[in-house]
Every structure is written in C-alpha cells, then in structure tokens.
Design goal:
- By secondary structure, this protein is mostly helical.
- It has a single domain, classed as MFS general substrate transporter like domains (Growth Hormone, Chain: A).
- The protein is built from 21 helices and no strands.
- Helix 1 packs antiparallel against helix 2 and helix 13 packs antiparallel against helix 21.
- The model has no long low-confidence stretch (mean pLDDT about 85).
Length: about 425
C-alpha cells in the first residue's frame, strides 16, 4: 500500500473509532447520569433500577436512530460520495454527543442521542466503502480488519476518559462529572476537518457515479442482489443483537458488582473502586475484541468467510454462557469479558470487508449501509428487554446476568444463515 492508501485507511479508522466512542460514551456514565437527571440518590436500589431501565431505553433508541442513519446515509454515500458523507456524519454525531452534556433532563438527553445516532449510523458505510475501493485487492481483508480495530481504540479511549474524569479529577461530584465526559464528543469535529484536507473521492466511485443512475433501495431486493442482501442482513443481525445486548450493560454490571465489594468504604474510595472495576471489565472486553478482530484476517483468507463465521458464532455462544451462567467470583467474572470480546466483538472485524464485497460499486454504500444497520431495529429490542426486566428484579444486577445467559442462544441462530451466505474468498471486488 502506498502513502495515500494508508492515509485513506487512517481517515476511515479515525471516523469509525470516534463514531463508536460517541455511541458508547453515555453507557459509561449512565450510573451517574441517570440518577442525577432523575434526582435519585446514587447507589440506592431505586437508582440502580432506574439506571438499568434507562440504559436499556437509551441504548435501544440509539440503535433505532443508528439504523435510520445507516440506511439514509448509505444511499447518500452512493449519491454524493464517500468522503463528503464521512465528513457530514462525523460532524453530526460529534455535535449530538456534546449536546448531551447540557441536557437538563432525560428527555432532552434522549433527543440529543437521536441526533448523534443518525450520524453514527451513517459513518460506517462511507468509511467501509471508501477503504474497499482504494486499497489493493490483495490487501482488502487486512485493511478492512485494521479499520475495525479502531473500535478497540474507541473503547480504550472511552474507558480512559471516563476513569480520569469520574474516578480521579471529579470523583467527589459524580452528578456533574458525567457532563464533562460527554463534552469529549466534540473531538471528532476537529478530526473531520483534517480528513477533508487530505482525502479525495475514490476514483472507482467517481467513474461509477458518472456512468450510472443514482441507486435505489429497492435494487437491493432485485434478483441479482437479493441473496447478498438477505444473508448479509442475517449475519449482521445475529452479531448486532449479541454485541449490543451484552455490551450495553458492561458498565452497569461491573459497577453493581463493585458496589457490593465497596460496601463500608468512604464514598470517594467507593467511587474509585467502582471506576476501577468498570475499567477492568471494559479493558478485558476490548483486548479480546482487538485480538478477535485481527484473527478474522487469517480465518477469512485461509478458511473462507463461511467457516470463519461458523467458528465465531459457536465460540460466542460458549463465551456468553460461561461468563454469565457459571458460578464465579465477582472479580473473576470481570475477566470473562475477554473471551466475550474475542468472539462477540471480534467477529465485527469481518463486516468491514465482507459486506462491501457483496455489492457492486454503485450500491457499495447503499447495500452495506442497509444490511449492517437495519438489523439494529431488531437488536434494539435486546437492551430494552434486559434493562426493563432486570430493573424489576429484587437484585437488578443478578437479574441482568441471568437474562444475558439466554443471549448465548442468539449466535447459534447465525449458523442457520450460513448455508446461503455467499463465499467471497478469492473473488475480486465487483464493479
């Protein structure tokens, strides 16, 4: 790869990394933000139940907005270009996230999250299409997986920012600290300006746009593309339901387990312990995700796409059951997020190269934008149900973990899709 191809990959890497940062940042501060906005005392059963319930609601709303933004901006990507769409979506999600810092109540917060979600959903298709069309054919798998490693960067950064702000500098005022965390959502706006200076539209898209009519969403279900659309949607849906259902509650579960261990400690020390346990769980999940993402490269190139998905889905089911179904010491349970990350998180490293491989250039934004994101409408049910049911239990954290045991069955459904999935190994990117 030459210098410009690396520049394009890095630009898309930053766009997706900050995209995910802004999408998950609120879940990290929810144990403080929700009680503050609802005027509840942190640490009380009422605050814990409300946090679970509203984390589920806000995550589900985020996913619905994400789906809408993915479909909308996927089409815009094919109409106005990859680079322009990347810049527009980055500006939208950064401003929407930063606006959350000024929310006076939970309803304004919800509205700000919807705005951010539209941009978050649209960025992925633009970045994935741009990378697939610019890098050499023989490096498409490696570039796609490297693109998704920015998700691990986002989780590390979210953990670091949250710990420093809530656990160190503002640990005595948790009801205000979460607002400063959300202000970090402005960072992508500055990055978007730099992207504009160095990245141009892919020549492959320029030629396709000049020689064809603008794409229509209905084309995805024409006979030539129907199989790619349905199987891509099925695989993404299974992965999305598993990822968001367990990821949305990592801060809540780790905070709840830590709160029990911190019983009797001074408030400031208890806050620090909670932030440390939360950071441990997220970092275990993130390191697993980073390694799992990179492992999709040899799996896809040497075993093929279908075998790779079969391995990841089977391992995802086993990891989820072990983490939430076995009797484990609370601190040990946090480390079980590593195998979850390795599988549930890691499989997403494949979608950045597999979905663009399924569609021709004129549909490379519309197709992946639809298949990768529309499944979030179904995935949105997971966090809502887990949060709502767990909030009604006598022990909200225990109830949430019990429900997550059933999520272990979700990846197994992906095995039913694989016989119809298109194998793209050794196949050139279609024009």
């Amino acid at each position: 790869m030459d210098r410009y191809q690396w520049t394009v990959l890095f630009a898309a890497w930053l766009g997706w990394g900050f995209d995910l940062l802004d999408s998950i940042l609120f879940n990290y501060v929810a144990p403080n933000a929700i009680p503050a906005l609802l005027h509840l005392t942190p640490g009380t059963p009422a605050a814990a139940a409300a946090t679970l319930r509203w984390t589920g609601i806000l995550t589900s709303v985020l996913l619905v907005g994400w789906a809408a933004g993915g479909v909308l901006f996927g089409r815009i990507t094919d109409r106005v270009g990859r680079t322009r769409t990347l810049l527009l979506t980055m500006a939208i999600y950064s401003l929407g996230t930063a606006a959350c810092a000024f929310a006076p109540n939970v309803w304004v917060l919800l509205a700000c999250r919807v705005v951010a979600a539209l941009g978050i959903g649209g960025e992925w298709a633009a970045g994935a299409a741009m990378v697939a069309e610019v890098v050499p054919e023989r490096r498409r798998v490696e570039a796609g997986a490297l693109l998704y490693t920015s998700a691990s960067f986002a989780l590390f950064l979210a953990t670091f920012v949250t710990f420093q702000v809530q656990g160190v500098y503002f640990r005595t005022v948790p009801e205000v600290a979460w607002r400063y965390v959300m202000l970090f959502g402005l960072v992508p706006a500055a990055v978007a300006f730099l992207v504009r200076l160095f990245v141009r539209e892919p020549e492959r898209w320029v030629q396709a746009a000049a020689a064809s009519t603008p794409p229509r969403l209905a084309e995805l279900f024409a006979p030539a593309h129907r199989r790619a659309t349905l199987t891509g949607l099925g695989l993404a849906l299974v992965a999305l339901v598993a990822w968001w259902t367990c990821n949305a509650f990592i801060p809540v579960i780790s905070s709840g387990l830590a709160a029990r261990a911190a019983a009797g400690l001074p408030p400031a020390d208890a806050t620090t312990l909670i932030e440390e346990w939360k950071a441990l769980a997220v970092n275990a999940f993130t390191w697993g995700g980073l390694i799992g993402t990179l492992l999709t490269i040899p799996a896809a190139k040497y075993l093929g796409r279908r075998v790779m998905y079969a391995i990841y889905f089977l391992a995802s089911s086993a990891a989820l059951f072990a983490a939430f179904g076995l009797r484990l010491d609370p601190h040990t349970r946090l480390y079980m997020y590593f195998p979850i990350g390795l599988t549930v998180f890691g499989v997403f490293g494949s979608f950045t190269y597999y979905l663009p491989e399924l569609f021709p250039t004129r549909l490379r934004g519309t197709g992946p934008g639809f298949t990768y994101n529309i499944g979030r409408l179904v995935a949105a049910i997971g966090p809502f149900v887990v949060g709502a049911v767990a909030a009604r239990g006598t022990s909200a954290v225990d109830t949430a973990m019990q429900l997550l045991v059933y999520v272990a069955a979700v990846p197994l459904a992906g095995l039913l899709v694989l016989p119809w999935a298109i194998e793209t190994r050794h196949r050139p990117l279609p024009d």
